[in-house]
Amino acid sequence: MSKIFRGYREFPSGFDFIYLNEPRKFNDVLLYQIGKTTCDHIDSHLHRDFFELSLITSGKGVFYIDNKGIEVKTGDLFLAMPHEVHSIISKADDPLHYFHIAFSFSYNSPFRNIAYSEKFIEMDTTLRKISDPRFENNFKQLIDILKSNKEYSDLEFEYALKQFAINSYYLYEANNASSLVSTPDSKEQYLFFKTIHYIEKHLTEISKLTDVSTALHYNYVYLARVFKNHYGESLSEYVSTKKMDYAKQLILKREMSVGEISDYLGFSCLPVFSKSFKRKFGVSPMQYLSLTSEEGM
């Protein structure tokens, strides 16, 4: 290998990024393991406080959760929950090849409220298998980002994994709607997650907060209340923080002027952008650009 990656292991049947003893942190995302493997069997083991998604790329076998077996085949996506006893057995004549990822969220993460909600965490084992081979590209993207080891790969991986988690939730919600969204509270959680999803995907298109509520077809006051109840921070603060963090990243890249960044992020004018940036980081965008330029000399 030309590079040695922290926690990386390569072997004849595949490879793994392993952080089981000390999860790798990407802000509020915790990564325990990601990789691709071929197996005849994996002995029973107790999962820690993480979710594990596995996508079968070829072969057949059985995934066991607490001794209950679910048959899987090419294209199946299988979800294992935290603190479950898990094992895998491949068909002797058609062994399993699959991607897998184990991840969780910190206790102050808005994503944890959804992922660890009672409706989701207690999903019956029979509902854990979904056929959707499209996730192969998501796995490849995440692995490619980790392998790239670029300056901003941690931030890129965080966003990509959050999008992966959102897509996964939507997929399970769509297939098991009656189980996952059946109470007023769970519907609000779904709206909250949908709002997060929209902001992550359309951050640069949001020039005013009502853009979010209009796009989601909800009253803004109601949407803002739901968001504050589930996140503990206002929608305005959340969008502002996301934009400022992205602005900081764009300034460091030095591919756009400060004025172009202001326009790109949907600010009405440069003074408004500069005021928001200074309130967040204590210096103006130009001062920050100057400081980072001097550090790089």
Any key phrases for this structure?
eight-stranded antiparallel beta sheet, 25% strand, disordered N terminus, alpha+beta, 297 residues, globular
Q: What summary fits the major beta sheet?
A: 8 strands, antiparallel
Helix content: 40-55%
End-to-end CA span:
32 Å
Show unreliable segments. Answer: 1-5
Q: Could you spell the SSE succession in H and E letters?
A: EEEEEEEEEEEHHEHHHHHHHHHH
Total E-strand runs: 12
Secondary-structure-derived class: alpha+beta
> So how many helices?
12
Radius of gyration: 21 Å
**Portion in beta strands:** 15-25%
**Average pLDDT taken over every residue:** 84
- Basic shape: globular
How is this structure best described in words?
This protein is an alpha+beta fold. The chain has 12 helices and 12 strands. β7 (60-65) and β8 (68-73) form a beta hairpin. α6 packs across α8. The two termini are 32 Å apart.
Chain-wise SSE layout:
Blueprint: E1 8-11, E2 14-18, E3 24-26, E4 29-39, E5 41-46, E6 51-58, E7 60-65, E8 68-73, E9 76-80, E10 85-90, E11 96-105, H1 110-115, H2 118-121, E12 129-131, H3 135-148, H4 153-175, H5 177-180, H6 184-202, H7 210-216, H8 220-231, H9 235-253, H10 258-264, H11 270-281, H12 285-295
Antiparallel strand pairs: 1-2, 2-4, 3-4, 4-11, 5-10, 6-9, 6-11, 7-8, 7-10, 9-12
